[in-house]
Write a structure and sequence with these properties.
The complex is a heterotrimer.
Chain A lengths: L3 E6 L11 E7 L2 E8 L19 H6 L6 H16 L5 H29 L3 H22 L8 E2 L2 E2 L5 H27 L1 H7 L7 H7 L4 H4 L30 H25 L14 E10 L2 E10 L4 E7 L1 H13 L7 H7 L4 H5 L1
Helix pairs in contact in A: 2-3, 3-4, 3-9, 3-11, 4-5, 5-9
Chain B lengths: L5 E4 L5 H11 L2 E9 L3 E10 L2 E10 L4 E3 L8 H12 L2 E3 L17 H4 L9
Parallel strand pairs in B: 1-4, 5-6
Antiparallel strand pairs in B: 2-3, 3-4
Chain C lengths: L7 H9 L21 E4 L9 H5 L5 E4 L4 E5 L8 H5 L5 E4 L11 E5 L10
Antiparallel strand pairs in C: 1-4, 2-3, 3-5
Classes of the chains: A alpha+beta, B alpha/beta, C alpha+beta.
């Protein structure tokens, strides 16, 4: 029987954007099993719902994560609006989709840069983030903040974008898309990228379903699962199909994200073409009483909010189940049997957002 | 626009049988979560199939917080059950991977049940 | 061979194009109209209604009516803009210059002057 060693991975590692700890049990150079350990960033945000009123909690919900912050705000607002039976005006819903899809673009570009850096391809990392800077400039121009916007509120949105600005932004996005096309070619066809990621970290379709994988991790294994098809917000009026790959390895997960970027550009063009005129917010009267599970599609997968109100201005319970938490179980399956040098690439391929996982 | 959500109340004894039948029908597990009410602890199991939501709900008396584990049927459930143990103090027997209370590196015992901030009114 | 040279065009272009980075601090940054910097108060218009104190989600603003002082803790301010929306005489505004880093946390105190009586005509 070969000798077993235990090597700690994380919480500090050049490849990880956020701290997670894995104990890897190795036999020679092959990983036999991995034991996770989380809790370095646990802030107990769920308990804050007892101290901040339900309208102030939107600011807490936005700050659960820096990369996917706007969509956290949308999920929370949607839950409270359903409990209180508030009808959000149409223009506000379209604006939420506009900012949500831009968030998806900036999150996927950030991931593409980090994944390229994990295999050592630094110049591709710099070019991806250079393209992402232009998207962050659009955020700053329309909402005032580059990362955390403060644009969503219970009942609608807080800022407006007039129609001329929207047309100009669509032209800017056309230039960004042309810039991004050259990078997408590299990710698809480059020899090094292909070699490092093909047949590494394979998850079959049955395993992905049994372990509860969500988001691009599930879609790369062939599961048709995209919560935007539920039709919340303005998505029921937009046309798109979920993007599926069947290989189930790191290359498949990368390709799902590369193709989703093109889909997001297309969705934004549809939104701007169909945007109606109207108000930005609905009046909020009274306090929430009741409960609801609000489900939204983030760049990383499905996020579930459980909100419960009892008739006062403080919510009873605010529970968030983020997509990275659901993807930790497939991660442990992927790591069993892989080579030790592939561990950073595999850990990054599920797009770990640990501050979401531990809130 | 907002989906209809079906939540079914069950007892602790029926839990394993119901979860097995859901797994055979092809549901995937979404989350397991707890809410502390003034007279009991409410535990929610959420499942999904083809974007259709289905939930199981059971109530535990506050003096006896014990549950059987469903990680024999759904392996991913052991992560949620470890989180329940660390934050709420629920004893779950038979977990596939048992961290023994060390999954979250926190100092206080069951903070979501015991601290003053965790006080809430019942339904 | 062409598989390895996919990045060649991009790399060659970026060698000869203008750099994507700005020469900060030699070149001053340009801000957009909506850019969030810090909350500024025009003290002659303030009427000490204390609405900004009540609505601030983090408790960064404190208003003292008897001593006629308006205080803000810049470390706690999250630049959400709720105080600007509720301010009745519209004396609060969002300035574009970001607040400077400081060595220790201090609360900034502004004294609100007593309004001058209008001349009777």
């Amino acid at each position: 029987m070969a000798k077993r060693t235990i090597i700690p991975f994380g919480p500090q590692h050049p490849v990880l954007p956020e701290p997670i700890h894995l104990d890897l049990v190795l036999e020679d150079e092959t990983v036999v099993e991995a034991i996770p350990n989380v809790g370095f960033i646990h802030r107990g945000l769920e308990l804050l719902c007892k101290k901040k009123s339900f309208q102030d909690m939107i600011f807490v919900a936005e700050r659960i994560c820096g990369i996917c912050s706007f969509i956290h705000g949308v999920g929370y607002s949607q839950g409270v609006e359903q409990i209180m039976n508030i009808d959000v005006p149409e223009r506000a819903e379209y604006l939420r989709v506009f900012w949500g899809e831009l968030s998806r673009i900036h999150s996927h570009l950030l991931w593409l840069g980090l994944a390229a850096d994990a295999i050592g391809f630094e110049s591709l990392f710099m070019h991806s983030w250079r393209v992402r800077e232009k998207v962050l400039n659009i955020f700053e121009e329309t909402t005032g903040g580059r990362v955390i916007f403060g644009a969503c509120k219970v009942g609608g949105v807080r800022k407006d974008i007039d129609n001329d600005t929207l047309k100009r932004l669509v032209k800017e996005l056309d230039e960004i898309e042309a810039d991004y096309k050259t990078l997408a070619e590299v990710f698809k066809n480059d020899y090094t990228v292909n070699h490092r990621w093909s047949n590494v970290g394979v998850v079959t379709k049955e395993e992905a379903h049994a372990l509860g994988a969500v988001g691009p991790t599930a879609r790369a294994s062939g599961l048709v699962q995209d919560l935007r098809k539920l039709g919340y917000g303005a998505y029921e009026k937009l046309e798109f199909e979920p993007i599926i790959e069947t290989t189930g390895d790191c290359y498949g997960r990368c390709m799902v994200r590369v193709r989703e970027l093109f889909q997001s550009f297309d969705l934004i063009r549809q939104v701007v073409a169909k945007m109606p005129d109207g108000e930005l917010e609905a009046k909020v009267v009274g306090f929430p009483e009741g409960e609801y599970f609000s489900r939204v599609e983030q760049p990383r997968g499905e996020v579930v909010y459980y909100l419960r109100g009892n008739g006062t201005k403080f919510l009873d319970r605010f529970r968030v189940r983020t997509p990275t938490f659901a993807n930790v179980a497939p991660l442990l399956t992927m790591l069993a049997g892989c080579a030790f040098a592939d561990v950073p690439a595999i850990v990054l391929s599920i797009d770990p957002c640990i501050s979401c996982t531990e809130r | 626009m907002f989906e209809k959500q079906e939540i079914v109340e069950i007892n602790k004894e029926e839990l394993l049988a119901k979860v097995s039948s859901l797994s055979e029908e092809g549901y995937r597990i979404v989350q397991i979560g707890c809410t502390k009410l003034s007279d009991k602890l409410q535990v929610d199991y959420t499942f999904d199939k083809d974007d259709k939501f289905y939930g199981l709900r059971l109530g535990l008396p506050l003096e006896k917080l014990e549950l059987p584990s469903v990680s024999g049927i759904y392996l991913a459930a052991c992560l949620y059950e470890n989180e329940m143990h660390d934050l709420f103090g629920v004893k779950v027997s038979g977990m596939a991977i048992d961290f023994g209370g060390k999954f979250y590196r926190i100092e206080a015992e069951a903070p979501f049940m015991n601290t003053a901030e965790a006080e809430t009114k019942g339904n | 061979m062409s598989d390895i040279l996919k990045m060649f065009n991009t790399v060659m272009k970026s060698l000869f194009k203008k750099s994507a980075c700005e020469m900060y601090p030699v070149k001053k940054p340009e801000f957009y109209e909506n850019t969030k910097g810090h909350i500024a108060i025009e003290k002659s218009k303030c009427i000490l209604c204390t609405l900004c104190d009540k609505k601030c989600p983090t408790g960064a603003i404190a208003v003292n009516r008897e001593a006629r002082k308006w205080e803000i803790d810049r470390g706690k301010c999250i630049l959400c803009g709720v105080c600007i929306e509720v301010c009745r005489p519209n004396c609060l505004a969002m300035d574009k210059q970001y607040s400077e880093p400081v060595a220790s946390q201090k609360v900034e105190v502004v004294e609100i002057p007593v309004p001058e009586k209008k001349e009777q005509k």
